[in-house]
Specification:
The protein has 597 residues and is of the alpha/beta class. It is built from 21 helices and 25 strands.
């Protein structure tokens, strides 16, 4: 049966094409959000992908495979390929086939209590498959089910028959390994309560401004906390940069009212978290501390960096600061910018499974493909709002993305032609024409606050000198860094040169232009974060410029970086630069005539 008015085309490779001009396109887009991932969103046809992880994320939030199929049937223009329907049903049903539940404590040979869990299944097939796997056998032992006292979760008769026992400390590792085998685990073991802490949000900030939680921020916090019963209290919240992920984190803290450990990307972000907590909650300075390279104190609310946690004096030695996860009776761990979670912290996250935890991020894209680790160890995606939806509601700024392309000077062309691939990237990135173009863009926008962002320190040092602008790199002292950021916010300076240290968790609300002069080999994650520096709500349109040496590897890497922005619905304007008059077209609506064709 064909319904030509419907907006969706379901393809046999499990991609979905959404015709944005069809009558019900907006309704369909909202219906796809729970279980499909947006891959590309150019002007006319948007592409979504259904993956095992997207279905299991949906299932963890209570959205079933049957509901996904009904959604596809309602909006599909053509018949759904039969194989796609079967795959969705079978894949979604895998979530819930395995559950972690409580088990009685037992005495070990020293007479001490040893804590265990049960992994139970409704299926003898799944049970036998796991039992036969050599990796699973390392932690899972088939056993008879014995009900613990005051069990919080009821089991079916089948689950009582097909039961493994595992040590409590192996909880995260088992979940991680089984996900790799294609079997997601539903974790129904109750989480422990940490020490109580009376945390309340203010109605008026300490700075005297009205403060109200936005609707989507409340929804995100509630999706994580749930009813505080088994299966709730852990997961990931995905919101665009500038949408107030910190506010969501503080709202969760106020709902749980417990000692909280916050882990974030750098010392500047630590200070911003502390400032926000003091401004918008009833917490006092005595109740909050930082755990960084500069100060290592522990309070009911402690804010640490990933760097200090992953530091170790010897390359193969232990991580001495991992003890921070155990030095307080935490009731909540907040992983800020969770997509940046380093591998060693995943190891701790595998151990710390009894504590409520939330990951905050603008994108779950990881260039190492470890999104599954975030799902199994921090928790599934509980809440997500598309960037363009918040832009439409004016919660984040309207943004235009502009790529400026130009050639290498003749004296650099031969050097580039004979260079190795990695060296080609550097030569293209440090094209000397970029300094001139940055100057011309700054001259064109004298009223804007402008960030010049790059990868290579020698290039950034040159730009800082040529522009007479301050520079922030990894070598900048934290006190100097905080002062420069404060001067930028206050309007004392309107151009700031920053290295990749500014990619993450930096709040510069009035920045309206970013000029990217070099980047990290086409990282979509980096592109999202850099765009996020200029998305705080404002009246004027923000502009994100990327300077690209044409006919070079930089152009190839740029194509990959654009992919993330296209996924979020941003269109790209491409300017073929000749001289500063090339920028006059920025004052005109985007059209093919402006593409230099």
């Amino acid at each position: 049966m064909i319904n030509a008015e419907n907006p969706l085309i379901v393809q046999s490779d499990r991609t979905l094409l959404l015709d944005v001009h069809a009558p019900r396109a907006e309704e369909c887009r909202n219906a796809l959000i729970p279980f499909a991932e947006l891959i590309r969103s150019p002007e006319h046809l948007h592409t979504y992908q259904i993956s095992p992880l997207s279905l299991w994320n949906a299932a963890s939030a209570g959205f079933t495979g049957a509901q996904a199929l009904e959604t596809l049937k309602e909006f599909s223009r053509y018949e759904i390929p039969q194989a796609v329907g079967v795959w969705i049903s079978e894949t979604a049903e895998k979530f819930g086939k395995l559950r972690l539940v409580e088990a009685p404590k037992e005495k070990n040979e020293n007479g001490q209590d040893e804590e265990f869990l049960y992994l139970v299944s409704t299926s003898p097939f799944v049970f036998k498959q796991i039992e036969a796997n050599p990796y699973a056998r390392k932690q899972l032992v088939p056993c008879d089910y014995v009900a613990p006292e005051n069990a919080s979760v009821e089991l079916t008769e089948d689950e009582k028959k097909f039961c493994f026992r595992l040590l409590l400390v192996d909880r995260g590792t088992v979940k991680q390994n089984l996900l790799k085998l294609g079997w997601p685990v539903k974790d129904d073991v109750p989480l422990v309560d940490g020490d109580p802490l009376e945390i309340n949000l203010r109605e008026t900030t300490a700075a005297g401004k009205p403060f109200e939680i936005r609707g989507y921020q409340k929804e995100g916090a509630q999706a994580l906390v749930g009813d505080k019963g088994p299966g709730t209290g852990f997961g990931t919240i995905v919101l665009p940069c500038g949408a107030g992920k910190t506010i969501v984190g503080m709202t969760i803290m106020s709902m749980l009212k417990t000692n909280t450990l916050i882990v974030t990307t750098n010392i500047t972000a630590v200070h911003q978290w502390i400032d926000e907590l003091l401004d918008k909650t009833n917490l006092t300075k005595e109740q909050i501390s930082e755990y960084t390279g500069e100060s290592k104190t522990i309070s009911p609310v402690t804010v640490a960096t990933y760097q200090i946690l992953t530091w170790r004096p010897e390359k193969t030695g232990p991580y001495p600061h991992f003890d921070l996860f155990r030095k307080n009776n935490w009731g909540l761990i907040v992983y800020d910018e969770v997509h940046m979670l380093p591998a060693p912290v995943f190891r701790v996250a595998a151990e710390i499974q009894a504590v409520r935890r939330v990951g905050l991020t603008a994108t779950l894209v990881r260039e190492d493909g470890c999104e599954g680790n975030v799902f199994s160890l921090v928790g599934p995606k509980r809440y997500d709002v598309p960037w363009k939806e918040l832009e439409k509601a004016k919660w984040i700024a309207t943004a235009e993305c502009v790529e400026v392309r130009f050639g290498l000077p003749m004296d650099r062309e031969i050097e580039y032609a004979v260079a190795a691939t990695r060296e080609k990237h550097r030569i293209a990135s440090e094209n000397p024409l970029k300094v001139q173009i940055v100057k011309e863009l700054i001259e064109k926008y004298p009223e804007d606050k402008i960030l010049v962002i790059g990868q290579f320190l020698s290039q950034l040092d040159e730009l800082s000198k040529e522009l007479g602008a301050p520079i922030i790199t990894g070598k900048t002292k934290n006190a100097d860094r905080d002062k420069i950021y404060a001067d930028f916010r206050a309007g004392n300076i309107h151009v700031l040169v920053v290295s990749k240290v500014a990619n993450f968790a930096i709040d510069l609300p009035d920045a309206s232009i970013a000029i990217q002069v070099s980047g990290t080999f086409g990282s979509r994650q980096e592109e999202a974060q850099r765009l996020g520096r200029i998305l705080r709500p404002k009246e004027r349109t923000s502009r994100f410029f990327t300077l690209i040496t044409k006919n070079s590897v930089e152009e190839d890497f740029g194509t990959n970086r654009q992919k993330f922005l296209a996924e979020q619905g941003y269109s790209y304007r491409i300017i073929r630069y000749k001289d500063k008059s090339s920028f006059d077209e920025l004052d005109e609506p985007l059209s093919i005539e402006g593409c230099g064709l």
